[in-house]
Design goal:
OB fold (Dihydrolipoamide Acetyltransferase, E2P); 2 domains; five-stranded antiparallel β-sheet
C-alpha cells in the first residue's frame, strides 16, 4: 500500500443560492459530515483513527484524510466493491450505512452530492447523487439467527422500551436485548451472570448482531462459588503484593529445585 494514500470526502450543496465551502458551511453540518467521515473510516469494528491526518480544502466542502497502512488495508476491499452499485450487502455495515444515508439525502435534494475519491488506491471514485442507485445485490448481508449470549446484566427494565443491557463475558461489549415488560417484571438478576437465548440479525461478513430480541433466560449453574473465588483472589493478591514479578519468582524457584 502507498504510505501516503488518502481519500477525499466531498460534500457539494447550495443553500439559499450559495455554494457550501469551508467558510460557508454551518457548524451543525460541519460536525455531522466530519463525524460521518470518521465513521466511514473506522467502520463497524471501530478502528482507531488517531493516526489519520486531515486537511480541509476548497472545492465545495472537501475533507482529505491521509490514512495509515492498517486503515488502507481495511478500507481497500470496500472501495473496490463500491465500484459496483449492487455491492452494499458485501461491504462493512457501517460504511454501507453511511453510503445509504448520503444517497438517500441526495435523492431528496438534487443540489446535494457526495463523493469519495481515493488517491493511492487502485480504484476509482464513488459518486452519490440523485442519479446513483447503490443497493444490496444478490447477497443479503443480514440473516436471522438464534444465539446464546453469556454475560452480566448491567441494566434491566426501561421506562419506555423494556430491554436487558448485557455485558458480554468474552468481549466486554454491552449489547441491548429487547424484551417485554411482562417477561421482565419482577426479575431480580441485575449484576448477575446469565445465559440468554436471543434471536437477532447477524451480518454474514463481520458477525455483528442487531435487532436483538430476548427469547428466554436459560438455566446457568456455574461450577464454582463466585463469592468464594473472589475471596481467594483477594487473599492471593494480598499475599503476592510484595513480589514484583510472580512469573519470574516461580521460574527461579523451579530452577533452584532442579
Amino acid at each position: 500500500m502507498d504510505q501516503k494514500a488518502a481519500i477525499e470526502f466531498v460534500l457539494k450543496d447550495r443553500v439559499e443560492g450559495q455554494e457550501i465551502t469551508p467558510t460557508t458551511i454551518g457548524l451543525s453540518r460541519f460536525n455531522e459530515f466530519n463525524q460521518q467521515v470518521q465513521d466511514f473510516i473506522s467502520g463497524s469494528e471501530h478502528l482507531k483513527v488517531d493516526e489519520v491526518h486531515v486537511t480541509i480544502a476548497e472545492g465545495s466542502y472537501k475533507l482529505i484524510a491521509v490514512l495509515p497502512v492498517v486503515l488502507q488495508v481495511a478500507i481497500a476491499p470496500d472501495l473496490q466493491s463500491l465500484q459496483r452499485q449492487d455491492a452494499l450487502g458485501e461491504i462493512d455495515p457501517k460504511r454501507a450505512e453511511i453510503v445509504q444515508k448520503w444517497q438517500a439525502r441526495s435523492k431528496a435534494n438534487p443540489e446535494l452530492r457526495y463523493a469519495i475519491r481515493p488517491s493511492g488506491f487502485p480504484v476509482g471514485s464513488v459518486e452519490l447523487s440523485i442519479k446513483t442507485d447503490y443497493r444490496i445485490g444478490q447477497i443479503e448481508p443480514w440473516v436471522k439467527v438464534e444465539k446464546y449470549l453469556f454475560g452480566t446484566i448491567m441494566n434491566i427494565g426501561g421506562a419506555q422500551k423494556a430491554n436487558v443491557h448485557l455485558r458480554l463475558e468474552e468481549s466486554r461489549q454491552t449489547v441491548v436485548v429487547g424484551s417485554s415488560r411482562g417477561y421482565l417484571k419482577g426479575n431480580d438478576r441485575l449484576y448477575h451472570k446469565v445465559l440468554l437465548r436471543v434471536e437477532a440479525d447477524q451480518h454474514f461478513k463481520t458477525g455483528e448482531l442487531r435487532n436483538l430480541r430476548l427469547l428466554s433466560f436459560e438455566d446457568y449453574q456455574p461450577g464454582f462459588d463466585e463469592s468464594a473465588l473472589d475471596m481467594f483472589v483477594a487473599a492471593g493478591t494480598k499475599a503476592w503484593a510484595d513480589v514484583p514479578d510472580a512469573a519470574a519468582w516461580v521460574r527461579e524457584l523451579r530452577g533452584a529445585r532442579a
